Amino acid sequence: MVIKFILITLLVFAAITTKPVIPLETSGLEGEWQLLHENIGISPMHMQLLHNDKVVMFDRTDIGPSNITLPFNLCRYDPFDSVLQKDCTAHSVLYDIRTNMFRPLSIRTDTWCSSGAVLADGTLVQTGGYNDGDHTVRTMVPCDNEFCDWIEFPGYLTEPRWFSTDQLLPDGRVIIVGGRRQFSYEFYPMGLADYFSSFVNSSSYLLDFLKGTSDGVIENNLYPFVHLLPDGNLFIFVNVRSVVIDYKHNQVVKYLPAITGEDPRSYPYSGSSVLLPLDENKLVEPEVMVCGGAQRDAYVDIKRDRTFARAVPTCGRIKLSDENPSWEMETMPLGRVMGDMVILPNGDVIIINGAGSGTAGWDNARDPVTRPVIYHPNNLPNTRFSVMQPTSIPRLYNSGAILITDGRVLVAGSNPNQFYNFTNVEFPTDLRLEAFSPPYLTKENAALRPVIVSLDEVVEYKKQLMVTFTVVKYLKLAKVTVRIIAPSFTTHSLGMNQRMVVLPEVRNVSFVGELLDRTYTIEVAGPSTAEIAPPGYYMLYLVHAGVPSPGKWVKVQ
């Protein structure tokens, strides 16, 4: 039996300070970029927003020294590290959105290309990695002091999980799917019987579908796209193929057609995917969207003669409730590989970061795509894409983007080099942190932007919820909706666990009076089931005339 043990490190780290950054009101319809920090010490390849408005960011430990030191000489000693056995630098930071400050965190085992999810109580569970970290589970409990840090459980996982995907389930567990040469799934936490019999792999379940998705020696079935569906089953997309599985009985319940074009979308061909918003005001019809990727021979061409094929310019949508689902294809204004798809509070999807040619991997891409594109899923075909303002910072391999509560998109990372390298390379390691403000934050929309002034912080399934809000200029004919968004664990162009639910309206907007501002209420109900919205913390937004309020944290239970 594998011995499980807990390594706890409680450190008091001095925060690195700078003045707070107030979200900008942009002046145009193409959004605006804002540099938050020139150097946060690491180049994050993983990010997770917690419900105290702090963002956990981390890289990998076998990369050599970072640019931020662990305090009090609390160095990491790892005889298995292939680069640096004694490392006195941090490979994780905790960033506070409200104060624009960050502090180093301590990781002891290798988190390279790992995965994560947030439990119903708000704890970040982070799984797998490389070398001494491939069987490790790590947790981070949110705190508002300077004491919280990573807690590590080496040897917890049944199988080595490197390039796997995590999804929170309706019962509060996390399913961990795939990984390099791992054609199976397992759960966190494992059951008591599984825990004591894990030496016979009883807690790992073979998924034959994963076995048949690699193209010979090319592993383009890493980081599967996994989405929880409203019926409780899982959508899994790998390479060009997808299925719906009943994970409780380890059965494929529906085989779906290959995405049109036959160009791979999984790592290292690295497209991105979202489950489009679920609207409980009408019949819920789950629809998955996959965008970008690389041409089928792109990875081989790079390794053979350093030829960088143009990235795939298409997106595919598939409605899984159809009797015979099929892919509806669209063409993006800009081809993109390694893009991040982030659901915005108004239901649009921003596609950000990435390259115009090549694949994921060290020095495998060229032509950075610096312009985000916003996709409007409810518009008519051929009117769904809007091109945004470019950034001046290339965001290539190992970059990421997440939504934060005020409606901005936080962007960090980019290190297409094997180690931290700042000179004599075409695309140096990047340590800068920036934010993109979408067009709904323009000053022209200020009068339409609602502000939530009161609501219950606990949202119960099917129970009524009153949201009170103010807005300077209420439009009587405008649609008002209340939405919740689960924050994603983002790495390698994949936002794990990201989902939006539009809450069902019970009573329309009512004017209730005027003190300093005109005040209104709307009554909605909590999500109908845990399959629609698994229990946990969500950002709640009220959207008026397409303009979202700043978000409020609620706990769905």
From TrEMBL:
Gene3D superfamilies membership: Galactose oxidase/kelch, beta-propeller, Immunoglobulins
Keyword Signal annotated: yes
Name of the molecule in the record: Aldehyde oxidase GLOX-like protein
Alphabetized SUPFAM superfamilies for the sequence: E set domains, Galactose oxidase, central domain
Domain Galactose oxidase-like Early set residues, every copy: 449-556
Entries under InterPro entries matching the protein: Gal_Oxase/kelch_b-propeller, Gal_Oxidase_central_sf, Glyoxal_oxidase_N, GO-like_E_set, Ig-like_fold, Ig_E-set
Classification via Pfam families: Glyoxal_oxid_N, GO-like_E_set
Signal peptide segment: 1-18
Domain Glyoxal oxidase N-terminal: 45-440
PANTHER family according to UniProt: GLYOXAL OXIDASE-RELATED PROTEIN (PTHR32208:SF71), SECRETED PROTEIN-RELATED (PTHR32208)
UniProt keywords, alphabetically: Signal
